[in-house]
Design brief:
Largest sheet: 2 strands, antiparallel
Order of helices and strands: HHEEHH
Shape: globular
Number of strands: 2
Distance between the termini: 31 Å
Number of domains: 1
Strand order of the largest sheet: 1-2
Structural class: alpha+beta
């Protein structure tokens, strides 16, 4: 399966009411599909919350630095 097919499958599973726990570096996808985002760094949870909070107003420096690198904001 290609990445796009996997992401489509996850969207379909969510639409059907399935609960999914997944790790991804696809930030746009996580923002679009997730109900809750957990950011981990160094094997520990650094920050968690709804996608809007994590992506629009991250509180922790590790989260801010990561998002600045991968989203070019």
């Amino acid at each position: 399966m290609l990445v796009g097919e996997v992401l489509d499958l996850v969207r379909d599973l969510k639409a059907s009411g399935s609960t999914i726990l997944m790790a991804t570096h696809e930030m746009a996808f996580a923002r679009d599909v997730a109900d809750r985002v957990v950011f981990m760094h160094g094997g520990r949870i650094v920050e968690e919350g709804p996608p809007e909070q994590i992506f629009d107003a991250p509180q922790e420096p590790e989260t801010q630095e990561f998002l600045a690198r991968v989203t070019h904001r």
